[in-house]
Design goal:
The chain is of the alpha/beta class and about 525 residues long. It has helices spanning about 30-35, 50-60, 65, 75-80, 85-90, 165-180, 235, 240-245, 255-285, 320, 370-380, 515-520, and strands spanning about 5-10, 40-45, 95-100, 135-140, 145, 150, 185-190, 200, 295-300, 305, 310, 320-330, 360-365, 415, 435-440, 460-465, 470-480, 485-495. It is built from twelve helices and 18 strands. It is globular. The termini are far apart.
Amino acid sequence: DGMNVLFIIVDDLRPVLGCYGDKLVKSPNIDQLASQSMVFSNAYAQQAVCAPSRVSFLTGRRPDTTRLYDFYSYWRAHAGNYSTMPQYFKENGYVTLSVGKVFHPGVSSNYSDDYPYSWSIPPFHPSAEKHENDKTCRGKDGRLYANLVCPVNVTEMPEGTLPDIQSTEEAIRLLNIMKSSRQKFFLAVGYHKPHIPLRYPQEFLKLYPLENITLAPDPWVPKKLPSVAYNPWMDIRQRDDVEALNVSFPYGPLPDDFQRQIRQSYYAAVSYLDVQIGLLLNALDNVGLSNNTIVVFTADHGWSLGEHGEWAKYSNFDVATRVPLMFYVPGMTTSPGSQGARVFPYLDPFSHTGGSAPQGQSQKVVELVSLFPTLADLAGLQVPPACPGTSFGVELCTEGTSIVHHFNVTEGKVQEGREGCDNPARCSDEEPAALSQYPRPADTPQWNSDKPKLKDIRIMGYSLRTIDYRYTLWVQFDPSNFSADFQHVHAGELYMMESDPNQDYNIYNNTSHGWFFKKL
């Protein structure tokens, strides 16, 4: 009898975590999970926006195959009847359960989170979710607003709670039921924070005195950034507190003090999230399932915190595409002999000091589209076959690959991102690369640049990330037949990671590297 799976998916979380080397954040519970896990420090989403990313990794297909670049179509009706990761586990005898935001709600998951295909019982959504965008943030004048920065007193909230607190409670309730049922389960838990609004219990602000908060290292729009690459963060501008600042569209910077407040609240929301994860993993211990449950922790994409003069996601920059990714696999990533001991004691971020290093760490570049085959592999199921070149008619296949072969790292060692190949059968002469993409309606930023509807897409930015560089081409795109024309390049970006880790100096136009572009 195989292992259970606890799949934790977080909304808009970039890797600001202690286990990823962030010195400011307090994330003891996620760090503790990392200390028993294989951690991937170069994992990338396939499109930096919620619905397309989630449908991509839940089906194991890229956005050009799901044909979802916005929020407005259901892949089974619009692209192909693709099996999902939870569906595959369900068809292999697992009870599959969804709590919180796993699929993006709405038409892109058929208004049902893809039930009954993907889930054994109807998915759970926290009732407090409907208040997320209400005016629940107290302003300096004592009145209530729909702000971006929104620390709250939870007891004053509608229903006296917050969505992620409810999701944790429901997930714990389900773990207790599954403990006695003796059936294998695949439990997906989707957390809302740190997605905007940055609404979290106000006590978490205490962890981050404003004087400790810096601006982004590069808070300006890079000189050589093509205008098509810039995302104008419309969703942020529409919040009451940001709207009141009256910044000019699209490049006007937010005031420095407000930038610090956003960064402070993002960190506070991450610590609030860390508490939820701590409670959830502690419950896994309490029901005695830590030694036969695989735990996966990741996010749907990242979020800019002022880098390049940008906020939110909606771009091809690493800050928008890079995600945390870790796998806890009992007996594989854990030290032997720890059976029966508590694996995940709850750690209080207000009192816990001292981080813990990841059990194993790989700098190999990997993609979220590889989650499906990797989880199947780890659970001992048959790995879905690789998709053929065009796979619209193929129900079960994956455009990712299992990354389990990157797990065999000796404890405490970091696996280099660029090393020779130990298994020639598995290696081609290509180095690992992650592909991401982002659509735009026009060459210059406008009101719908962040989230263009399919019919308005005119340009697709295809991005290739290796350990050494990021190369992006913004090419003509025709939404009526989903075709990209690489002969018609609107703009390009090339960043060399070693000398320019923050992607501030685009050298696409000043390179005479003919050989290099050929290789790409």
